[in-house]
Design brief:
Length: 188
């Protein structure tokens, strides 16, 4: 897990919010596996706007390349780009996304698969709704313990983590929170 500051400018972030609001948001569904989704507000309560935007994905990927390759810990993993399907999430007061792992996306041609989540914070001015990741720590003796890491959102900043990491979007107490989420794709 690592973060990237200033991946998007405040102006770019505001423009993405404006653009997605003009497209419209619908209730976010929960991936149930096997291509099925369901509305489960007790687990996931927020709204989303999905955009297929390869140009935006490529622009972000170009900005990320140096960071991605310098933070790569698995020599066998070949990062090839971002999933162009961008999911914009809007959380309003009372919205939450309980602890979960992100699902894996396999490209239809079978050449790539998602491995990492890229989440970009698009605004500030809200209370609560923090992203909390449950990561493993290992001491010098090899003992492993789970540690909760809370991400402090900054406009235009991103957090990147493996799909296997348990994480949650805490209860939003005040205001509206916008994030953009997509996947970092690796060669299969």
């Amino acid at each position: 897990m690592f973060s990237v500051n200033s991946l998007l400018t405040p102006i770019e972030s505001k423009e993405l919010i404006r653009h997605t609001e003009s497209k419209g948001y619908v209730p976010a569904l929960l991936n149930m596996g096997n291509g099925k989704e369901a509305y489960k507000p007790g687990i996931r309560k927020s709204s989303r706007c999905i955009l297929d935007a390869p140009d935006i994905a490529n622009t972000i990927y170009m900005r990320l390349q140096d960071v991605l390759f310098s933070n790569s810990t698995d020599a066998s993993t070949q990062i090839i780009g971002l999933n162009p399907r961008l999911r914009f999430l809007r959380y309003e007061e009372g919205d939450v996304f309980q602890r979960h792992r992100d699902g894996v996306f396999v490209h239809p041609d079978g050449t790539s698969v998602s491995k990492y989540t890229l989440q970009i914070y698009l605004n500030d001015g809200y209370e609560g709704g923090r992203t909390a990741l449950s990561v493993w720590n290992q001491d010098m003796a090899g003992n492993r313990t789970r540690k909760k890491v809370v991400v402090e959102p900054v406009v235009g900043a991103a957090v990147i983590f493996d799909h296997t990491v348990l994480h949650e979007g805490g209860l939003l107490e005040r205001g509206v929170k916008y994030v953009m989420r997509t996947d970092i794709m690796v060669k299969r």
